[in-house]
Amino acid sequence: MRAWPLLLALLAGGSAVAQVPDGAREAQLVRMVRQDCGSCHGMTLAGGLGPALTREALADKPLESLAATIYHGRPGTPMPPWRSMLSADEAHWIAERLLAGFPKEPR
Question: From the DSSP assignment, how many helices (H) and strands (E) are in the chain?
């Protein structure tokens, strides 16, 4: 079913540009991606149980689809929803960072 990524993107409700988290929250989000996402996607995000989350691996993925996957998960797969720990804007911010090449450390 090709329409479900679009549906997930609409459900995420993210804006075109994600609000930048403040310094402390940004550090928490970077740590969460590196540790929690890294536990399945590899500690360097180069792949593991889950696919690679590198800029190169995600180059053809739509931003809104990535944000929706982060926020809502992927039913029927090991990818969990993160909406209990993130706002939709934070999921969008993470997706933007992944597409740009996720930072090793917060700014």
Answer: 6, 0
